[in-house]
Amino acid sequence: MASPTLSPPRPGSNGAARRPPRIRAQSNEAIPRGESDSFALVAVVSVMLGILVGVLGIFAIAMWFDARDAKDAAERAAAKATPAADASTMPGMNHSSGAGGLTSYAGAAPRNAEELATAHKPFNAVMPPIPKGVANVNLVLKDITVQIAPGVKYSAWAWAGGAPGPVIHVQQGQLVKITLTNDGAIPHSVDFHAARVAPDKAFRDVAPGESVSYTFRANDAGVFMYHCGTKPVLAHIANGMYGAIVVEPKPGVLPKADKDYVLVASEWYLSSDGLTKPAQYNQDKARARQPDWMTFNGYAGQYVTHPLTAKPGELVRFWVVDAGPSLDTDFHVVGTVFNRAYPFSDMNPAHALNSVQTVTVPAGGGGVFDVKIDKPGLYPFVSHAFAAVDTGQVGLLKVGEVEGTMSH
Ligand SMILES: [Cu+2]
């Protein structure tokens, strides 16, 4: 706000000293010359001070108006933000916001949890083969009840097969045709991070009972998220509408892996413990980023009970997507060091990191990790932000024929 207008006039710098002759000419001739000069000077200084006080007053008033306008604008924005983003007021979204507030149901388990964990059929983390020709991907969105931990049921908006959706595997440069059918009760859509397409057309909302189709050429290699992008996206992703697509780099770019596993990390925000009846989405927890459960491939600790496997000395490649919706995954394998990591799933070998311990996979992003383990044992893979492990984001890589339990 420093302005030349506000600087006090310096004596002799504002022209006042040059004006007195003209003023004197208009003044009473009887006034002696010296007195006349000082009178004129006093008059000029008084006028200048008057102007200065006026200008300062105007500035003060303008600043008060500015402050008041800013305060009003902030209040209007706050009032507008709250109801507009309130998912509980939207048709078809009768999720109980605030039911139970931020009460945590983390770790809730029935007595027979161990038995249920053993009986649970784990999500297949093995990367499927690449289809020939055009990769036709048919996705069906459905409102279904899923299991997210032993004995914990959740009323999801997910895929016909649960959450995450099917793992898609294509070759770099392959044409991919996506067909999304909405068998749910409200509009949904599907946003592929691997695609370079106009989202307003390809990722548009599809009404219940309808379909949308689009194609894209998978020119960018890596592991990418796909998800429902219908507003409010936080609720649609938290409810299970996400999955992974692996775009395999051209042959010869990567060292050949003996085992390829795909992991999709995500969070679950529950309105109840889900033990007697399915839990629903809790918006307050989702906004506060306080999940009850965190999982790899949709079910807490499923690869602890049903470990992924490798033989000693095999090159194991993990293709990891973090579906979020909001928290990062700090990927780490206990008992080893990544031989190579491709952060953000930048598959350019020149950009790969060597001998690193933990690499962040951001929400909405991917990462690829190579490990080669010689010594037989049970090697936990985790998000090393340990609240994630505590709430289910942990699995085991069983190297060789070993027995026993995990160390973490
Ligand atoms: Cu959706």
Strand order of the largest sheet: 10-9-12-17-14-15
Structure ligands: copper (II) ion
DSSP, total strands: 19
Instruction: Give the strand content.
Output: 25-35%
Q: Which regions contain 5 or more consecutive residues with pLDDT less than 50?
A: 1-35, 55-92
3D shape: globular
**Structural class estimated from helices and strands:** alpha+beta
Oligomeric category = single chain
User: Percent helix among the residues?
Assistant: 10-25%
Question: Average pLDDT, to the nearest integer?
Answer: 84
Q: Biggest β-sheet, characterized? A: 6 strands, mixed
What would you say this structure looks like, in words?
The chain has 8 helices and 19 strands. Helix content is 22%, strand content 30%. The protein is globular, with a radius of gyration of 33 Å. The chain binds copper (II) ion. Copper (II) ion (CU) binds next to loops.
